[in-house]
Amino acid sequence: MDLINRVINTGKEKVSHRMSSAYQSPVSAVRSLAPLFLFSLLLIGFLNGCIPYTVGSTAQTLPPDEVTTAASFYIMPGVYLLGDSLKITALGMDGEVRIGVTERSDIGVRFIAAGMGFVVNYKYLLQGDHSGRNSAVSLLTGAGLINTGDHFHFEASLIASGAQDDNLTP
Question: pTM for the complete prediction?
Answer without folding.
Answer: 0.61
